[in-house]
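Dear Dr. H.,

I hope your travels went smoothly. While you were away I took the liberty of generating a structure for the chain from your last submission, since the lab meeting agenda had it listed for discussion. I wanted you to have the full record in hand beforehand rather than looking at slides cold. The sequence, exactly as received, is reproduced here:
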Amino acid sequence: MPPLLPTFPAHGPHRWPGFIVGVVIVLVGAGFASLALPVAARDIALNLLNATIFGAAGAAAFHRARREPEAAWGWNLLGLALAAQFLTQVWALHSLLRYGQPPAFPSLGEAFSFLSLGLTIAALLAWPLTSASGSERLRKGLDGLGIAAAVFFAAWVFALGPLFRDTAATPLNRAVMVGFFLGNATILGIGAYLCARQPSRLGGPLGWVMLTFGLSLLQVTIQVPLSLAGGYYVGHPLDMLVLLAGLGVLLAPLAPHAVQPGPAPDAETRDTSLGTLILPLVPSATAVPFALSVLFLAPERVDRPFLITGILMTTLGLLRGLLALRDLQLLSTLLEARVQERTRSLEAAQELLLKTERLNGVAILGAGLAHDLKNLLGVIRLRTDLLTARLGNREVEARQDVEGLREAAARAEALTADLMAFGRGSEDAPVAVDLALRVQQLRPLLRATLPAGIRFTVDLPPDPVFVLSQPGRLDQLIVNLVLNARDAMPDGGVLRLAVALEDRGSQAELTVSDTGVGIPEPLQARIFEPFFTTKAPGRGTGLGLASVHQTVVLLGGSLSLVSQPNQGTTFTLRFPACA
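The corresponding predicted structure, in token form, is as follows:
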């Protein structure tokens, strides 16, 4: 068996259950059928139908509060408002059945009506519909107040003004009538405020509530001049508008659409809804034609309330215009700031492009020089081999020096080969390299590059530490970092090189630390940029640490540094360890 009440999706198609459509058709048909009854019986029938509708609407609102907990407060307050309106209809029905005429005006029924109006206003404000932004609430609040003022202005021109001028109404009667019109106008203004950002809300519960009070206000606005002209009587067909208004408020809790929450504050700058364009114009668009019509066609209707309401709408229009000018100025400032930020970004991108082009030129030049250097290094290696053969077992120290020269030439050949391969866009496949062994093999060469004032210590683990790398890349890393540390200690110090396994053997760690001048914190984020150097002109190219960073990334590792001025710097390189 399908549920009697629909589900409430926030978006998507609105499908009304068939039984609700059938009930509405039956109630409308019953209302039109009552027009065929005698006047006295017609008034009783319409009040009975209205009481039934408002009672059912209140029960549906309480039921929906349990099914839509995020909007429960609003639905419970609306249920109480409809219960108060139900009591209004019951009170009128009681007077018709007992005395054969409607209750006196004002009476207990009007008290229930005002209670219903107040609870409805509270229900609309309790629904989670307002914007989270204070400035947005102010703008839309002024728009809603403008709608309320425009509705009241029209009601005064067509109903209240003629009623107060042409009848001897008591102050209490006048206060009740003004309160009724103000209450309905306020509800319509709040509805316009809540729908301004999301017109789709008009298709949900909020739209049905606005339709209800719009029809109610229309019915009274037409009834007053008819009564003054002697054309209205109890049970008049105009009372069908009250029945239709009741059906509207019945459909509010039955609408197959959830109460939509308000938009996020960051969506304010993208607000292009139709309501945003139309609502600010409503007060002036209403005041100007009505005021001109009254001034030229019926100047006798110009009274104090007419002028006050017109001035109010004009003031609201001016305030809304000032807010629009403020928003325009803020948007202009924001746009100017974004343009400046974009300009700075483009300038930085252009500078980076120039550096990249210069680096590409250096790379191309370096690849060509590497080819010639490799040839010269080949000659050096050949000469050292011949010299070693001639020395034989004699001159042990000279032989060791020649061996060191040959090994250095071999490493230089490997580095130039890597540079040429990089220039061609092809490199050798990575192999497992013992990081600790490479450091141990480089130790004599590194010591030879350091001045006597620098104490050089090496801390290596007893077991191999394998990482995947191309031949010569690790040598290049180590040499660059050691030379960088050397330059940071012009007056001497301590340079420590350490290799270790971390994270249960999954990470190989290489640490290079010095006790030099350190790197200021503002510059630490830039030291890996190509051509950026903290050294004096002519002493650095700005490519050493940039190449270190690029190589670490290519090997799948990470690089971090800790540095303080005059306390030294520590570079920590981590690579995935392999078996």
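Two observations you may find useful: Residues 1-8 have pLDDT under 50 and may be disordered. The CA atoms of residues 184 and 213 lie 6 Å apart.

With kind regards,
E. W.
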